[in-house]
Design goal:
CATH architecture of the largest domain: Sandwich
GO molecular function, one term: quercetin 2,3-dioxygenase activity
Family: Belongs to the pirin family.
Shape: globular
CATH class of the largest domain: Mainly Beta
EC number: 1.13.11.24
Keywords: Dioxygenase, Oxidoreductase
Structural class: mainly beta
Number of helices: 0
Number of domains: 2
Protein name: Quercetin 2,3-dioxygenase
Strand content: over 45%
Order of helices and strands: EEEEEEEEEEEEEEEEEEEEEE
Strand order of the largest sheet: 1-20-17-22-15-13-14
Distance between the termini: 21 Å
Helix content: under 10%
CATH topology of the largest domain: Jelly Rolls
Length: 239
């Protein structure tokens, strides 16, 4: 039997620092809920708003796969590997922190905010060589279908990470139905609604709701209204 965990948008942790407003689906920083530590290898799902010209100063990471997905605006990245880059909507950024890196993230613009998702997954291999990559995808390729944006294979579509995970994004018109087949036995799926609404395996989801499903081979997805956008994460359940 499928197991489900529903995280309503309003139940997420909130950190409001003025220049930063962050919603935490899972325990993070000063937000702690013993029932919301992770979903499988998905450890962090932060929904961040950063004010114009503001950002995160240099800070360290290690042994984590970190994925950033801009939703609005432009985010500037600098790291200890010498990378300097700007990511915008349509881009996907990945860092394998491995043995250790430091980096900073700033809103590139002085006149408008930046909104982005920061996602952390536990890696399947510890102490790998740190690396950075980003790609630009054609957002029209996710109209009424799921576009793969991440996988474990460097030769496959999207960015790759050190984990048996696959990410997809989709933009759907009203009433479009699709069945998603889970890529690897033992994996679960975490769906996060970016805009609009969906019905996933009979569970109704609104904007910024999240739903985790495990012990399943496939999930049924139906968009509730035109312009609905979704992020689907197919991830191992065992850390």
């Amino acid at each position: 039997m499928k197991n489900k965990v529903l995280h309503k948008a309003g139940s997420r942790g909130l950190a409001n620092h003025g220049w930063l407003v962050s919603r935490h689906t899972f325990s993070f920083a000063n937000y702690y809920d013993p029932d919301r530590i992770n979903f499988g290898v998905l450890r962090v799902l932060n929904d961040d708003f950063v004010a114009a010209g503001k950002g995160f100063g240099t800070h360290p990471h290690d042994n984590m796969e970190i994925i950033s997905i801009p939703l609005e605006g432009d985010l500037e990245h600098r790291d200890s590997m010498g990378n300097v880059a700007v990511i915008s909507k349509g881009d996907v950024q990945v860092m394998s922190a491995g043995t250790g890196i430091t980096h900073s993230e700033y809103n590139k613009n002085s006149d408008r905010p930046v909104k982005f998702l920061q996602i952390w997954l536990f890696p399947k291999s510890l102490n790998v060589k740190p690396r950075y990559n980003q790609i630009t995808l054609k957002t029209e390729d996710r109209q009424n279908k799921l576009q793969q944006i991440l996988s474990p294979d460097p030769q496959d579509a999207g960015v790759w990470i050190h984990q048996d995970a696959w990410f997809y994004m989709g933009n759907f018109d009203e009433g479009i139905e699709t069945k998603y087949q889970i890529r690897k036995s033992g994996n679960g799926v975490y769906a996060f609604v970016l805009k609009g609404s969906y019905i996933i395996d009979g569970t109704e989801l609104s904007e910024r709701d999240g739903l985790g499903i495990s012990d399943a081979d496939a999930v049924d997805i139906k968009s509730g209204q035109a312009g609905s956008e979704i992020l689907l994460m197919d991830i191992p359940m065992n850390i």
